[in-house]
């Protein structure tokens, strides 16, 4: 058998807010919320001082303001955050070429073999975190484990500015007391389904046999069975191909469905432009996303026989998907998004049907 992988998950601590506090000393030690003010805005990031009041990313800015009236709101500066992210990734690249970025502030690294000759994955993580601190004046946390999902859980264990190791022999004991919601893919709905079976921890999930889980949840049951035992064979993918491109926008005021046409056309153009940069790959599936005034999220998608070949086709499909929304006419919407998904190389796509049959 191949030796266990050595995976490190590095996660910058309160990244956007920490960059703001680094660059403006007057913000240090204060509750900082990275967001535009306004009824339609959401929180991009919150400093640890703001998190003590319950402020979290993706929260409506108005709610954040109520939870922490003394919070200092700072508009996001993504160009600056991307520049720092490039610095951090350059540090990663000194140790391994197997880097899988998840976002600007976190990535998986496979350091089973590392470039610097350090004796352990723990030493690699320590060296990376020290370099980040020295070169960017920011802190990062790390999780070290035999696979990706365990490393990601571990990186939260000693936040901020810490690291935690899950050794192969410790996996089962580490997972057993954790709530099932810690497992990747287990959201609130699945948590509730498992709770009806008396399953609230990973240890309790592990006690249920594979056949029972498959009978109740199909192929997902097998995945749950594997995760409960710490099994995850997904490798670190250093060049992950694009699977979806999308664009979305929050309206200044809530709109009825029929008044979203202009936004759909504009966002489809953005998504189509992004998809066109993929060269020899095309998106097969058109996706429409809507968020109601009460924050309910709806998605509709369609995969035509042949991938869309023009912006006009994408717009037509997105508008057709809109007709599949069956909420009452009085419903108002705060956000719309259009995307292209299910990307494939052109040589993997089915041939285009003949325009004129012989």
Runs in which pLDDT lies below 50 for 5 or more consecutive residues are 351-358
Looking at the overall shape, the CATH architecture of the domain at 244-348 is 2-Layer Sandwich
CATH superfamily of the domain at 244-348: DNA polymerase, Y-family, little finger domain
Q: What topology, given as strand order, has the largest sheet? A: 5-6-1-7-8
Report the structural category: alpha+beta
CATH class call of the domain at 244-348: Alpha Beta
The quaternary organization reads as single chain
Compute the average pLDDT.
91
Rounded Rg: 23 Å
The percentage helix is: 25-40%
Run of helices and strands: EHEEHHEHEEHEHEHHHHHEHEEHE
Shape call: globular
- Total helical elements: 13
Give the strand tally.
Answer: 12
Q: What fraction of residues sit in β-strands? A: 15-25%
Give a short account of the largest sheet.
Answer: 5 strands, mixed
**What's the N-to-C terminus distance?**
57 Å
The CATH topology name of the domain at 244-348 reads Dna Ligase, domain 1
Describe the structure.
Helix content is 35%, strand content 22%. The protein is an alpha+beta fold and 358 residues long. Among the domains are: 15-78, MutS, DNA mismatch repair protein, domain I; 172-228, DNA polymerase, domain 1; 244-348, DNA polymerase, Y-family, little finger domain (Dna Ligase, domain 1). The chain has a 5-stranded mixed β-sheet with strand order 5-6-1-7-8. The termini are far apart. The model is unreliable at 351-358 (pLDDT under 50).
